[in-house]
Amino acid sequence: QVQLVESGGGLVQPGGSLRLSCAASGFSFSSYAMSWYRQAPGKGRELVAVIGTRGGSINYVDSVKGRFTISRDNAKNTVYLQMNAMKPEDTAVYYCNTNTIRFPWGQGTQVTVSS
Q1: CA–CA distances in Å: residue 65 to residues 29, 42, 59
Q2: Maximum distance among all alpha carbons in the chain?
Q3: Are 13 and 115 in contact, with CB atoms under 8 Å apart?
Q4: Per-residue confidence in pLDDT tens, the chain, 115 aa
Q5: Are 92 and 47 spatial neighbours (Cβ–Cβ below 8 Å)?
Q6: Cα-atom radius of gyration of the chain, to the nearest Å?
Q7: What gap in Å lies between CA 16 and CA 108, rounded to an integer?
Q8: CA-CA distance, 102 to 90, in Å (whole number)?
């Protein structure tokens, strides 16, 4: 059974940092490029960052370039998103999945950026 379990969200002030984790199970994690997505209130889900199977081929949506860093640990079946210099517009529920959205969504983790 495939599971994607996101964690690490919370409330942070503008300019602050958070590190999200996504623990994957039930599939060959190292065989898939992985992505982080987010859905802000009243908006559709958007792709935030992508990482290739071995940690290369990294891309970001323009709005997070220079602030967010995606990484992965294939030994731990986990993908991470380090978020720095956060802005109120980063407020959203964050999800992980493969870059082709191959599997059912997890529950996501809420990130709120507010003073």
Answers
A1: 25, 23, 9
A2: 40
A3: yes
A4: 999 999 999 999 999 999 999 999 999 999 999 999 999 999 999 999 999 999 989 999 999 999 999 999 999 999 999 999 999 999 999 999 999 999 999 999 999 999 9
A5: no
A6: 13
A7: 20
A8: 25
